[in-house]
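Why does residue order matter? Because the sequence determines the fold. Keep that principle in mind as you read this record.
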Amino acid sequence: MEATGDRRTGGTRRGFRSVLNDRYHRARPYLSKPSLMRIEIDDLTRPAVHALLAEHLQDMHALSPAESVHALNLDALRVPEITFWTAWDDVGLAGSAALKQLTPRHGEVKSMRTPTARRRQGAGRALLIHVIDEARRCGYQRLSLETGSHPAFHAAHRLYEKFGFQYCEPFGDYREDPNSVFMMLLLEAA
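Structure:
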């Protein structure tokens, strides 16, 4: 890693990617009871998962116009370029997340969802850490996401910011949309 002199920081400033990775590693300790939560690849067959994804789609359509909803249904999640995970604890399903391969070096976070009744219990953080770790393992250099711009999405924006995601222009097949927010994280190799 290259360091450059900077009088404002005592003489050394680390590279941009290093700063983002520091944010990611600082966010890890905030997980609540991570040892009690298990994250597993999901085959999308369980009724609890169906209910969570139905809740997700219903909320997205309530908050954004139909042409601005990019949430995926069950069939759209069952494609080879997407890996879908669920988080479980003693209470049951705590959340979901997916990673879509856009290119061999670029992945997209999809289907991040915590049941409304289970918010602020650490599942979102745990799943995001899992997705970031998996993206690194896959050799991705960039991890991107699209989320809504409605105030209901601001908590999600803050979570992504804590992990070092930066706001960016549309990527992939997305286009500028006042109902969408685009973010990305540059990754270093694991």
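The chain has a mean pLDDT of 84.
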